[in-house]
Amino acid sequence: MLRDETKLRAYFADAPDDISLDDVDITRIPSHVSFIMDGNGRWAQARGLDRSRGHVAGVDSLRETVTTSVRLGVDVLSAYAFSTENWKRPQREVNLLMHLFATTLVKELPLFHQENVRLKFLGDLDALPKETRDVFQRGLDETASYDGMTFALAVNYGSRAEIARAARLIAEEVAAGTMRPEDVDVEAVSQRLYTAGLPDPDLLVRTSGELRLSNYLLWQLAYTEMYVTDLYWPDFNRWEYLRAIRAFQGRGRRYGGVVNA
Q1: What is the pLDDT at residue 258?
Q2: Mean model confidence pLDDT for the chain
Q3: Which of 14, 18, 22, 38 is catalytic?
Q4: pLDDT of residue 253
Q5: Which CATH architecture has domain 28-158+201-247?
Q6: Whether pLDDT at 201 is above 70
Q7: Can you give the residue ranges of every domain in the chain?
Q8: 30-39, 41-50, 251-260: segment of lowest average pLDDT
Q9: How many CB atoms are located within 10 Å of the residue 28 CB?
């Protein structure tokens, strides 16, 4: 995606001592950056607040992450917002999250319009409350024609369920005679995932220091570089984003081969 270098330089002015825009190569920004946004509840509890305050604070970090991604020229930004396992949380917290998804998207639509961001959702949305589904559909409709960055939000998403769904779709097509068993390959599976049409992530960022994938994009992350920060999600900002980019650019991506063989 094209970037406006004037806006980029202004956005990253007043850098802290350990990181600045000059520490990264803006011509080698990863095409697809994905986030596991973890630690909202613990951020709130560490401050003696209700867990719900952490989710609200996390919205500010996500807004900054969207803007940072646009400024850097990222093509695809994806983020893990609510997993299929998160339904096990207390009902009050689940209800708050569903309401927060709906109200936040309405508030953030002007940002998507301003920055030419196309919205996409990953996951089974049918299980969500009607209010949330309706707002999500509004976001999809209003941004469908945009050709800037794609922002893919994973809601009611679980990677094992996603892969099982793809297998089921393929099995149905084989049973119907519209696909031959020998045509089932990696591409056939990829095209039946929620992420069909999107490149696999180049960089995965996880906050809160946890070292696990939590059933997120298991197929798509096969050769993704990972960056883990101890910061809770509400404390994640543009400077930590730059640190993640710097770490990514310092690695050699071999995809199972050997560099400079």
Answers
A1: 62
A2: 95
A3: 38
A4: 74
A5: 3-Layer(aba) Sandwich (3.40)
A6: yes
A7: 28-158+201-247
A8: 251-260
A9: 9
260 part of the active site: no
Which two three-digit tokens encode residue 50?
Answer: 């209700």
Report yes or no: 49 and 61 within 8 Å, Cβ to Cβ. Answer: no
pLDDT value, residue 214: 98
Query: Residue 89: CB partners within 8 Å, gap ≥ 6?
Result: none
Catalytic residue status for 25: no
Using the structure block, give the residue that is written with the tokens 């802290």: 16
Candidates 50, 75, 86, 235; catalytic one: 86
Chain center to CA of 174: 32
Amino acid at 5: E
pTM of this prediction exceeds 0.85: yes
Using CA atoms, how far residue 137 sits from 50, 105, 110, 121, 128, in Å, is 30, 10, 16, 10, 12
Helix intervals (H) in the chain: 5-11, 40-46, 51-72, 91-115, 130-143, 159-176, 186-190, 238-249
How many residues are recorded in the chain? 261
Q: Give the position of tokens 């301003």.
A: 114
Name which of 32, 34, 31, 51 is nearest 43 in CA terms: 51
What DSSP letter does each residue of 176-197 carry, written as one string?
A: HTSS-GGG-SHHHHHTTSTTTT
pLDDT of residue 260: 58
Distance of CA 40 to the CA centre of its chain: 16
